[in-house]
Amino acid sequence: MDLYYRPGSAPCRAVIMTAKAIGIEFDKLIFINTRAGDQFKPEFLKVNPQHTIPTLVDNGFALWESRAIMVYLAERYGKGTPLYPPNIEQRALINQRLYFDMGTLYKSFADYYYPQIFQQQAPNEEQHKKIETAFELLDGFLADRSYVAGDWLTLADISILASVSSFDVAGFDLRRYGNVARWYELAKVNTPGWHANWAGCLEFQKYFQK
User: Fold this and answer.
1) Per the residue annotation, which of 9, 159, 165, 166 is the catalytic one?
2) Which of 50, 60, 83, 124 is most deeply buried (CB count within 10 A of its CB)?
């Protein structure tokens, strides 16, 4: 089972933490230098024509999109894991939070910070407001529960932890959102693979220091 990845990528870090939480290891971690265009090389395009990371290859089965990979790993190798329990309503809530991360929280990070990092554009205040809206929503999700989809760690926490830690190293003030700040400290302690995630965050932080 091989994972094509980049350490600083939040989606890649989410997959790595998921594997740690389930207790599985990748045979190979294959570094894709997206800044150098590795994702467009013919050998990678044969695996993933959408040329995105992370990409998983498990005994010839190729899968991309981090949250799809996370669910696949839980269902295939984590039978009965509380990370993705069999109860339909619990899974539905976890899925909703995963989609929230993809379409709202992490998207707000990418839309605000990536143009500044990779295209040297000025900060866009309208995009920053979307970050604040996303964190207000997340803070509300956590108002009456310890974790984002219930009272225990799930795939939703892992995905959102990868995103929130990216905001952390970007200098976004999480302390304004009390429930998020409380959850963040709890998740850092209780999520397997946190140290690998943080190492990737520090690698990504270099872009903010230039």
Assistant:
1) 9
2) 83
The helix (run of H) or strand (run of E) holding residue 57 is strand 55-58
For the whole model, what pTM was predicted?
0.97
Reported residue count of the chain is 210
Direct distance between the N- and C-terminal alpha carbons of the chain, in angstroms, rounded to an integer: 36
146 has catalytic annotation: no
pLDDT in tens, 81-92: 999 999 999 999
Q: What is the dihedral of CA 80, 85, 86, 89, to 10 degrees?
A: 170
Amino acid at 147: Y
pLDDT digits (tens, 9 = 90+) for 121-157: 999 999 999 999 999 999 999 999 999 999 999 999 9
d(CA 156, CA 147): 9
- Residue for token pair 């803070």: 139
Pair of tokens at residue 14: 């989410």
Torsional sign, CA 87, 101, 54, 166: negative
